[in-house]
Specification:
This protein is an alpha/beta fold and 297 residues long. Helices cover 40% and strands 18% of the residues. A 6-stranded mixed β-sheet has the order 8-7-9-6-5-10, sandwiched between helices.
Length: 297
């Protein structure tokens, strides 16, 4: 994905909100080196101006002063609405402060009628390709309408990154629909029906199934599960934020996964890193956000 971004000879404008933290500045420095971004530092400008690493990029960066973190967040959202920046990125600012500005009903970035969700991408030594999953950060317990939009969003982002016919697994601890014990599995039935009728375009959606079955043909064979996913999932839709967040943290700790994440459903992609994310994860998130922008053009 990075190589393909560099070949585009295109720089996307990043609005980095409150760049006091080292990892965020390092991530945008790497993106500047790879020549696919220009950066607007919004808030935390004294630290940026004193950082000698950015001297060589002065023609590709600018600074916007802000008196407070809330002002920085509101300024960044306004710039995104006006088309001055293509992507927002959270620096050393509380998630609540930034999301308050993003979700402002009058001046925010939420698209009309859209459902905001978080889509993550993981590259793991133990899996043969990149794996998308949602939602580990935003929607606590998706209802049926939100689940439909999660599938729609992750299918779209898969296509934007070059997967022409995404295989999407609806994850659960069971492979059987049981409305009495696991009521959300009945929602899965409706989502699968919509997929078969073409509601999400050309894709494969199936479930419920566990993560191992979704990503291992051997596991499917042993458990005698018949599914068009065939242990080759491109994307996982988690049942709720608890499962999604646990999965995210587990693969980074135990599987040495490289991860990226972006908020979707907003007028521009928003990179909203976890406090525990390192500079590399933030860099990959910028690359994913830039690729999403390219896919929309």
């Amino acid at each position: 994905m990075l190589a393909r971004l560099e070949c585009r000879n295109r720089r996307w404008r990043i609005g980095l909100v409150c760049a006091e933290d080292e990892s965020s500045r390092m991530a945008v420095e790497w993106a500047l080196q790879r020549k696919f971004v220009n950066v607007v530092f919004i808030g935390g400008t004294e630290i940026v101006l004193a950082d000698k690493r950015f001297d060589r990029y002065r023609s590709h960066i600018s600074v916007v002063r802000a008196e407070s973190r809330d002002e920085a967040a509101c300024t960044a959202v306004r710039m995104a609405r006006e088309g001055t920046v293509d992507i927002l990125m959270k620096g050393l600012i509380n998630t609540d402060n930034l999301l308050r500005a993003v979700l402002n009903k009058e001046h925010g970035l939420l698209c009309k009628g859209a459902v905001m969700t978080h889509v993550a991408l993981a590259r793991m030594p133990s899996y043969h390709k990149m794996l998308f999953f949602t939602d580990s950060a935003v929607i606590p317990y998706p209802n049926r309408e939100q689940r439909v939009e999660q599938v729609r969003t992750i299918v779209r982002i898969c296509r934007q990154t070059g997967i022409s016919r995404p295989k999407v697994a609806l994850v659960h601890c069971t492979e059987k629909v049981n409305g009495k014990i696991f009521p959300l599995t009945e929602d899965y039935v409706e989502v699968i029906r919509m997929a078969k009728e073409g509601a999400f375009g050309d894709c494969v959606v199936d479930g419920p199934m566990d993560v191992k079955s979704a990503c291992s043909a051997d596991a499917m064979r042993i458990k005698n599960i018949k599914s068009p996913i065939n242990g080759d999932a491109d994307a996982l839709v988690m049942p709720d934020i608890e499962a999604g967040n646990c999965f995210y943290k587990t693969i980074t700790l135990f599987s040495q996964a490289d991860t990226a994440g972006v908020l979707a459903g907003t007028k521009v992609p928003v990179v909203l890193p976890s406090r525990g994310d390192d500079a590399m994860s933030k860099f990959f998130s910028l690359a994913l956000a830039a690729w999403c922008c390219y896919g929309e053009e």
